[in-house]
Structures are given as structure tokens and as C-alpha cells.
Amino acid sequence: MIKYISRKLIIFLCLLLPLLWLVSCENDYPDSLFDPEAPKGDTPVIDSITPAEGALAGVGKVTINGKNFSETLENNFVFFNAERAINVEASKNKLVVIAPNLFGDSIKVKIAIHKVELYSDTKFYKLIPAVNEVGKLADGDEGWGLAVDATDNVFVSVSGKIIRKIAVDGKTTAYKENLTFLKANNMKMGPDNTLYCTVAAGRVRKIATLDPQGVEGTFVSLTGNPGDLDFDENKNIWVTVLGDIYLVKSDKTAKKILSLPVTLTSLRVYNGYVYVTGGDPGVGEAKIWRAKINGENLDTPEVVLDLTTATWLEGATVNCLTFSADGEMVLGTNHENGIFIYHESDGSASPLYPGLIAPSIYAMTWNETHYLYATQQLADGAKVLVIDMAKAGAPYYGRK
Fold first, then answer.
1. Is residue 209 within 8 Å of residue 196, measured between CB atoms?
2. pTM of the full predicted structure?
3. Are 304 and 290 spatial neighbours (Cβ–Cβ below 8 Å)?
């Protein structure tokens, strides 16, 4: 009996002693994080957001005016819906941020401040897509030449002897099928709403036309494969043919005006000059030239930009060029950033909307306002992009 009681006592003590040790130990838990007496901070207040009409998603600077913001940049948390904006500038009464890449007419904007208990009031704001796909090409379409008319109908040449039309509402239709050529190297909208296309089909090398009813014709035959074309103020057409620049007049006569020891790709008439891109891959040469239009001739060409020494291109190819109304050169490339802005005045360059435009940009054309359209060639097909440039393009004389 005693042995039995001892055994029970030993078991009891074994259970009791650890419990007594735990009770006797000092409490090492931290103090509560909640302090009801701590100051809650002044709640941020949004008075106004500018620009009032909205900003470009992903790239636009937005200024928020109000009160109780932090002067320490990283202590301000500005949300557009659930997406946080990038802080640029901060003071007690003003925050400047880069809008996130989402868009809508009624996006909720609110602000949190580090160590302040409450969010700001909510304001509604409009974010506009800086880059968007317009229309919908068919799966597997390879996109080539591009043109837009004065009322924003977009025309794009796709392989398979088809030109597709993208209406203003985005509806995509086959404008013309069963063409005599596989694709248009490039296109421009010309007088009387007629499409002018540079094409090569076997031994046939020409500028083809498509009237508003889609009837195909031949404007002029050429001796070599034409690349790009553009109209000048007198409705003359300047066109690249391998290494040559031809002048094609409204009476359908063609004359070689200038030769360069390279293959020319893109051409644009701007401010009284013909600009061309071209190069010789065999020797690693790639440049942009310009030659002043002198009546029906061109003055001696000059190099505007040596692309082989442009470190910002990282060896990428320039496929097309155009201009804004204020003289900025816009370059479409196969670089990972897609499009660059080149400032001829000081030789500087920067990517357009970094992270929003991928390669490869084949052709570009501005509309009559501030939208730039671009053919983007992708591994699984092609897209037509519409890019809000927030400025007008240089005039296209063929549309006038």
C-alpha cells in the first residue's frame, strides 16, 4: 500500500514541479503594441487632383493638393483603387505621383500616411490608357504597312493578300482581299482618300492604289523593290527603292533623285526635308539621313544620327520614323522598349513610355490629333497599337 502511494506521489510531484517552475519564471512577453494614449496623427485630406480631366495610366504625373501629408517621400502611400502610385515629390500640402497602369473613369484615390491611423477621404479620378490595342487582327496575321484616314479609320496590310480596316468603334473587317500582292511594305493615305501602297510581287514592283471602294490600281511601276513613301506639300511622292530615293509626280512619272550606298527602309517628309533610315548590315552601318527638298530635287544629304554609335539603342534596328508637330523624332524599333523619342537639337534620346511598349514596331502613323498608331509584330501574330502622345503629330500632306 505504501509503495502504491509513493508511486502516486512521485507522479504527482513530476507533474507539479514543471508547473511551479513556469509560474515562477519572469514574464518576458513584450508590452502590448496597442497604446490607447498614443497620438493618432492628423488624417490626410485630399482637396483636389490635377490635371482635372485625367492623366495617362502608367506614365502620367498626378498632383494631389490637400493637407496633412508627410514631407518624407516614402511615408506617403497613394492608392488608385488597390494599386499604389509611384511617389515623385512630397510636401505637407502637395503630393506628385506617377499614376499606376490601370484605367477607368471612376478610379478611387485615397492616401495613407505612415503612423497615421486613418486613410484620407476618397476622391474619384480618371486614368486614360497611354497604350492600347485597337481593333483585333486575326490569329496569325503578320502586320506590315499602316495608314489612317482623316476620320480615324485605320488600314493595315497583313500577309495573305489582305488589307484590314479598323473602324473608329474598333470593328475590324477585311477592307480588301485577293490583292495582286502578298503585302504592302508601307502605306500612306493620299488624295481623295486613296491608299498608296509600296509593293513587290515577283517582277512587279510598284506603288499600288486602293480607292475608297477598295478597287485596286497601279499608280506607277518602279525598277526595284520599293520600301516606304510619303507625300510633300505639292502632293509629290518621295519613295525609297533599295538604295535610291525616287520622286513620283502626280502625272505618274518617276525619276531617281538620289542614291546612297545602303539599303533604305523608312522615309518621312518633315519641315521641308526628306528623312530616311537605312544601313548595310554587312559592315554594321545604320544611319538616319536628311536631304532638303529643293523643288523637284534634293540637296546633298547629311547624317542626322549614326545609329551604330547610339548606345541607348543597344544594337537594335530602327524600322520606321515619324515626327511630332514640335519636331521630336519618333523611332519605331525592335528594342525591348519599342519606341524612342530622339531630340535632334541636343542629340538626346529616351524610351517612350518605358515598360508599356514591347518590340517589334514595324510601322507608325499619326492621326489628325494626338494619337500615334503602330503595327507591332509579335511571335504569334500582330497587333495595331494606339498610343496617346499628348501632342499632335507633324502633318501628313497626303491627307490634306
1. yes
2. 0.86
3. yes
> In angstroms, rounded to a whole number, what is the distance separating the alpha carbons of residues 321 and 338?
12
**Lookup: cell for 358:** 514591347
Q: How far is CA 98 from the centre of its chain?
A: 16
Exposure of 174 in the CB half-sphere (CA atoms within 13 A): 11
pLDDT of residue 282: 82
How far from chain centre, in Å, is Cα 284? Answer: 28
Residue 316 pLDDT? 94
Q: How confident is the model over 320-370, as pLDDT tens digits?
A: 999 999 999 999 999 999 999 999 889 999 999 999 999 999 999 999 999
CATH of 45-129 among 3.40.630.30, 2.60.40.10, 2.60.40.3140, 3.30.70.270 = 2.60.40.10
What percent of the chain is modeled with pLDDT above 90? 85
The torsion of the CA quartet 242, 244, 245, 247, rounded to 10 degrees, works out to -100
Residue 228's closest CA among 193, 272, 273, 184?
A: 184
Q: What is the pLDDT of residues 7-59, one digit of tens each?
A: 554 444 444 444 444 444 444 434 444 455 555 789 999 999 999 999 999 99
**What are 311's three cell numbers?**
548606345
Going from N- to C-terminal start, the domains of the chain cover 45-129, 131-399
Contact at 8 Å (CB) between 214 and 165?
no
- Cell reading at 310: 547610339
Laid out side by side, the sheet with 154-158 consists of 143-148, 154-158, 162-166, 172-176
Residues 6 or more apart in contact with residue 143 via CB below 8 angstroms? 137, 156, 157, 158, 362, 363, 375, 376, 377, 381, 382, 383, 384
Q: Class of the 131-399 domain? A: mainly beta
Cell of 278: 537605312
